[in-house]
# Entry
Amino acid sequence: MRRPARRHDATAGSRPPGAKASGALPGAHAAGPFPLLLLACSFALAGYAGVRLLADDWFAVALWFVGAALLHDLVLLPLYAMADRAAVRSLEAAGHRTWAL
# Structure
């Protein structure tokens, strides 16, 4: 059985327990600029690949994307859900329900 989550009353100027005071923006990444630069490069590479891919036969590419989305939504997603239910039920039967959370 899961324990209820602790609630924190948000008052002006208060922080949740364990939160550190910081001058950084909320949600700022502490690893520095490298992850942001890597993300920007990956977007640039994906944009370049998209432009090159769509330049030749855009209809075949669009058809492939639609087919992949339908395959995922109509075939693979129900299989994922059935596998998840089977895993949760088997863990419940073995008495290890907390492992499935």
About this structure: The two ends are 10 Å apart (CA to CA). Residues 25 and 78 are 40 Å apart (CA to CA).
